[in-house]
Amino acid sequence: VVAEAIRDALPLSPNVRLLEYGAGTGLVSEALVDDVGPITLVDTSTGMRDVMRAKVEAGVLSTARVWDLDLATAPVTVDEEFDLIVTVLTLHHLPGLEAVLSNFAALLASGGHLAVVDLDHEDGTFHGHDFDGHHGFDHDSLGAQLGRAGFTGVAFRPCHHVVREGRPYPLFLATATRP
Description:
This protein is α/β, with parallel strands linked by helices and 179 residues long. The protein contains five helices and seven strands.
């Protein structure tokens, strides 16, 4: 569903260099593999990187690279550019967004796109009240943060929903461009 929303919102081609941040097991990249060019999967979890590497070795994502890179806490040290950065249900786990959004902008080529899929603002029941991340996002606030990070053309659209304990939590797709 997320891959389809990204396909509908952004231009994809075999020339698009994709970085998926917080890739988990690489499911979104797996769904987009035939629509894009080189794929780089990034996650800070050793276990998730192990799953992604197994998919690379099994030929599911045969040409993908797997990186351990924490863009939320350190400046970009990679001398590469990407045409599309995708992050799905990752940003709400990060206490602060300034560093990661700035790093996304630094990694994108001019004219490159960012696609963020995450939770609409919710009452804190998605993770529970002891969660120290974001309880989803207000679109105006996140849009302003994207603008401060240097992005233009910020747009939000409904994407899907996640059901937890019988309750639906709406997800949005935010797209933005690095000028």
